[in-house]
Amino acid sequence: MQTQSPQASITISAGPRDPQWIDRLKEEYSALINYIKNNKSEDNDWVKLEPANKECTNWKGKCWVVHNLIRYEFDFQFEIPPTYPLAPIEIEIPSLDGLTPKMYRGGKICIDIHFAPLWQKNAPKFGIVHALQLALAPWLAAEIPVLIEEGKIKKD
């Protein structure tokens, strides 16, 4: 799904309530643009993302996985937590809610064991792009093929 790690370093430690939030967002956008651009140039495009509100505290997007040459696409969303960047982003895929034990109520993907400790070690350098690459992408790669094989996800 993804091959390159995010190259941009997030340097501003600011959350949605901080005066420097706009400066943090500029770094977040730069990292996202570079990540998506790199993925597209390597024919490894798997995600689209945009803010869902003007404050850029709610985000929505689409992600996809190709399994057995069939593309499966999912809407996802997340809210920037008030204590961001110290608290990790919790990504939700509402259409998959209840299909796997590696998901919490509301379709939040499980990040406790692998991603949350990594985030804690790297906060505030980690940002949205890191949540996509180091939480969402591996979760999709591990869970979606299993859900397909179990018949819980079917192609329309």
From TrEMBL:
Alphabetical UniProt keywords = Ubl conjugation pathway
Taxonomy, superkingdom: Eukaryota
The record ties this protein, via Pfam families, to: UFC1 (PF08694)
Any one of the GO CC terms: cytoplasm
Its Gene Ontology molecular function terms? UFM1 conjugating enzyme activity
Q: GO biological process: what's one of them?
A: protein K69-linked ufmylation
Which CDD domains does the protein's record reference? UBCc_UFC1
PANTHER family, alphabetically?
Answer: UBIQUITIN-FOLD MODIFIER-CONJUGATING ENZYME 1
- Give the protein name, as stated in the record: Ubiquitin-fold modifier-conjugating enzyme 1
